[in-house]
Amino acid sequence: MYRMVSIAEAQETVLKAISPLPSVSLGLSDAVGYILGEDVIAREPLPPFPASIKDGYAVVSADGPGDYDVAFEALAGTAAGHLKAGTVAYITTGAPLPEGADAVVQIENTEKLPPGSDGQQRVRIVKPAKGPGDDVRATGSDIASGEVVLAKGSRIGAAEIGLLATVGAATVQVWRKARVAVLSTGDELVEPDCAQLGPGQIRDANRFMLAAAARSAGCEAVDLGIARDDPAQVEAKFQEAIAQGVDVLLTSGGVSVGDRDFIKPILERQGTVHFGKVCMKPGKPLTFATLNGDAGSSGRGLVVFGLPGNPVSSIVTFNLVVLPALRAMAGWAEPRLRRVHARMQMAIKLDPERPETGESAGELAAVSTGGQISSRLLSMRSANALLELPAAQGLLPAGSLVSALLIDDLGAMTVPEEIPLVVPTL
Ligand SMILES: Nc1nc2c(c(=O)[nH]1)N[C@H]1C(S)=C(S)[C@@H](COP(=O)(O)OP(=O)(O)OC[C@H]3O[C@@H](n4cnc5c(N)ncnc54)[C@H](O)[C@@H]3O)O[C@H]1N2
Ligand code: MOO
């Protein structure tokens, strides 16, 4: 019999038992979504030279307004020329400021004059530069040489890829992501392409759902298929996971207390079961174990999550416990789900015994996805948050402010036309 642990204790136990996977070197274009395993330092200043902020004329600011010869053109991508006082140079945005010049006057503040008889281009500076440095980016004003542009532990998104490219970090050290094997167990399961279900059969939903969830976390998913309710078959699949050198094994089904539930006894024989019962609904039989030895692609053992067979229990426990573990392995400093406030738009019945995790959709106004039953995958459809509801009798009234754990990027959320600016009165 297992002691019933709280969700927080289960999460803490898992995060204590695992550590980040070894770092790997990745090409810049492949690094999006990874966590940086090193500080990235700028070797040169940016801009590497004083650069024009505008299309206009490079000037000696002390020359002031007046009519000038355009001595030459300073174009982006060319070496800076030398400007003599009393003349100006045509300059494009991003071009190096010519030596001798100290400011730029934008085109809008000038008037082109007819060329001289010798063809000399001339311009009138109508509104002169305010002083040295006007409309010029000084060397290193965006990024100083030696500056840490990205610290170890940063998450690499599109802007960070841009920064890496800017400073010439063509390859970077990042924490590797886990290889995750997915195994379904149960005599009743058939493949999704089964057109005609036999007696007692259902299609395997969990394997595909969990593999997709692992891939969404950036992990490689390894499909171990279905094991029948037979300890020898389940053990053979465990050996296959070890042989394939995966880091994490996700099983679903067979973790409850029936005499056909073989996952816990096998894990007890092969490794250490850290918990086998969690005080939550859905997901009570969630089991977490580590297998010793040289399993896992980094030779540091295999991490096994025995997820409940009910599909909703499976995906909810994945989000609450497995996902933080995959993130921690990938080097996330704060791997847990983001917790926000949501206001209930409707009353919700509470469970008297187990704190409940329900699903909500929409804005940070929580609307139930309907009947919350662990077998009913429709209760997860389009859900973008899991509400953390206490174990209690009765109804939670509409208007209650509840805790919500975000499980997606809210990309499907309706977008208000505008959000009013609220300025605090001081
Ligand atoms: N006597 C008790 N029985 C049960 C308890 C309990 O405390 N005492 N807990 C219940 C809870 S809570 C859950 S959750 C389930 C979990 O059971 P298992 O993990 O052993 O899962 P199975 O019995 O194998 O399956 C449960 C349910 O889910 C369906 N299933 C299984 N795998 C898949 C799959 N890959 N795709 C789609 N559906 C799947 C399976 O057919 C069952 O209907 O135990 C309760 N029992
Ligand atoms: O814990 Mo079970 O997941 O309620 O059905």
TrEMBL record:
Keywords: Magnesium, Metal-binding, Molybdenum, Molybdenum cofactor biosynthesis, Transferase. Its EC number is 2.10.1.1, 2.7.7.75. It holds the Pfam family MoeA_N. It is an enzyme of class 2 (transferase). InterPro entries: MoaB/Mog-like_dom_sf, MoaB/Mog_dom, MoCF_biosynth_CS, MoeA-like, MoeA_C_domain_IV, MoeA_C_domain_IV_sf, MoeA_linker/N, MoeA_linker/N_sf. SUPFAM superfamilies: MoeA C-terminal domain-like (SSF63867), MoeA N-terminal region -like (SSF63882), Molybdenum cofactor biosynthesis proteins (SSF53218). Pathway: Cofactor biosynthesis; molybdopterin biosynthesis. SMART domains: MoCF_biosynth. This is Molybdopterin biosynthesis protein CNX1. Gene3D superfamilies: MoaB/Mog-like domain, MoeA, C-terminal, domain IV, Molybdopterin biosynthesis moea protein, domain 2, Molybdopterin biosynthesis moea protein, domain 3. It catalyses: molybdopterin + ATP + H(+) = adenylyl-molybdopterin + diphosphate; adenylyl-molybdopterin + molybdate = Mo-molybdopterin + AMP + H(+). Its cofactor is Mg(2+). Catalyzes two steps in the biosynthesis of the molybdenum cofactor. In the first step, molybdopterin is adenylated. Subsequently, molybdate is inserted into adenylated molybdopterin and AMP is released. In the C-terminal section; belongs to the MoeA family. In the N-terminal section; belongs to the MoaB/Mog family. Residues 181-328 form the MoaB/Mog domain.
